[in-house]
Amino acid sequence: MDSILKNRPALKAEVAGYLWQKGWAERNGGNITVNVTEFVDEGMKALPAISGPRPIGKVLPHLAGAWFYCKGTQKRMRDLARDPMANGSIIRIRPDCASYEIVADLPVAPTSELPSHLAVHDYLLAKGSPYRASLHTHPIELVALTHSKKWMEKDAATRMLWSMIPETKAFCPRGLGMVPYMLPSSVELADATIRAIDEDYDVVMWEKHGVFAVDTGIMDAFDQVDVLNKAAQIYIASRNMGFEPEGMSDAQMKELSDVFNLPK
Ligand code: 13P
Ligand code: ZN
Fold first, then answer.
1. Which residues constitute the domain of residue 48?
2. Which pTM value belongs to this model?
């Protein structure tokens, strides 16, 4: 099954190594899922399940027969970067759209955040989105921002982060959605994540926990989080130098949006 992971832009297990290097992936922190259905050939379709069925916890009508690579629960990103198939597995959604089975390579149980990941993939397929990857990670500075009510206000953090350095809006043009604290791995958190993504965000914060990002591939999802966290670091660096950063002016932001054709 390794062939499914090789040379596929959507997968890029090296991103797991970047998450560890960034300090965003303590212990088993964070998870990755990628919709790999388009890479599954007829021979693979005939493979028997090696474990399951297991319930998802939600009914996801657009996922019947879909295949996903999932980080294993309790598995470490730094290990996944070296050996994705020992630290994750390939699952197939059963025709009931409410359960899945593990198909390859080993019976590694998928991430505890599977309800959020699969609910988001279901939503993306329903919308006809080209996005195939979802990433949850614990970026230090972005998580720190969510400990303040001020930055949890809708689009307050987005405006501040965009104004720190022009690239932020250029490469994360939909900004940063905010999801109030909910129990990790819960179906409620999955539902709230969908609501935030439906407001047209690619990246949403889970208050006092982490970030959840979607994009065409896992590298692109990582890049969006990386530019946002860089902006948060610039804000914090200014505060550490003893001043509130000025930020780009409204006129500068407008010029950027006009020239690069970004949403207002
Ligand atoms: P898993 O090890 O189950 O993927 O959980 C990590 C995590 O970050 C939960 O929010
Ligand atoms: Zn987490």
1. 1-112
2. 0.97
